[in-house]
Amino acid sequence: MKKYLAYIALIPLTFLALTPPWSFNLSCDINSLFWLWAIFISGFLTFLFLYQNVSVWLKLFLIWCFISNFLSRAPYLSFTMYWSVIACAYYYVLCRKITDFTPVKKVIQAVFFFVTLLIIMQCFGLDTLLNFNQKDTCVLGTIGNKMVLGSFVCVLAPFLVFNRLNLAVLVLIALISGSTGTMLAVFAGLGYLLWVKTKWGKAVCLFLIICATLMALKQGDIYQFNRYGRLPVWKRTVELVAKHPQGYGVATYRLLFPIMSQDIAPCQGADMAEWEYDNTTGKGLAWRRAHNSFVQLPFEVGIPGMILFSGFLISVIWKIRNPLVWAGIIVVGVNMLTAFPERMTQSVLILIMFLAMCKGEKNV
């Protein structure tokens, strides 16, 4: 049975990896019998997880996330989305039992081939299927945004760095994406590999840093970052974490942060325009993601949750010695500084699979 585990785990991973841009809402009748069943079953699955063969840090993190639903500023939303945390935890248990990751690498490679083909067709204006030959691209690659596409490719990178041709294509896609965050992530991983494997790695690293900086300056990303981009969002997020260190609840950032940041202008010279989504209205800044996983996580699960999850990550990677694996970790980690791959439907299971692969380093 074990030889089929990889194929079983790849079914949901592939389905989600190929998910096109779409929106959906989760609904539930509060105080209904279904709601009570959901709470009871989730609590049971949370404590049943204590008996799984995984890091104690992850076990405690799952328990803390369940407790945080009771402390949340938006408990209905927090608990509804907590089910996805449970699903991810048990998916990690399944992936940990995989002994041969060769099928996984083949599937990821096939996804990468497919995405690369779509990007080529779109760059040459030959996409008559996804975007119906329109000048304004609605779907770039398999997603719909250059930054998001670049982040998705960064998530695929840890399974691709074992092939030099893949590395060249990764760099090319990073440049095509026009996303400074994607370029920094890919260049950081590539630079690390060159640093440890070649004599002229330091010079190449410096060259890559200069390229990324020049691109950021040309696109005005640095100015935008400091004044009306990520920096003000990160600063306000950290301030809110300090005010509520126990966290505001799982997946509550998208709802609570815009409400708590209505005094911040959305961009230079802009009016405090009103916004409306998820049956909520407000004005001013309306960022629903921090574009920094390490800042958004403590907002939602608090300082205790951040400590527990960090302990889990360290327990996974601290024994890794393979530079190729570390290159993948660096690409994903740097990307998480400027994007939100763990919030993307397409990426979540791939990230979990990578963590499982890292834990079984002998299989990498």
Structure, described:
The protein is mainly α and 364 residues long. The protein contains 15 helices and two strands. Strands 1-2 form a two-stranded antiparallel sheet. It starts with a helix and ends in a 5-residue tail after the last helix. 38% of the residues are buried.
Put simply, the count of helices is: 15
The stretches of 5 or more residues where confidence is low (pLDDT under 50) are none
Whole-angstrom Rg: 21 Å
The major pleated sheet works out as: 2 strands, antiparallel
Helix content range: 55-70%
Succession of helices and strands: HHHHHHHHHHHHEEHHH
Number of strands: 2
Average pLDDT across residues?
86
User: What structural class is derived from the secondary structure elements?
Assistant: mainly alpha
Distance between the termini: 21 Å
Principal-axes shape call: globular
**Strand percent estimate:** under 5%
Major sheet: arrangement of strands: 1-2
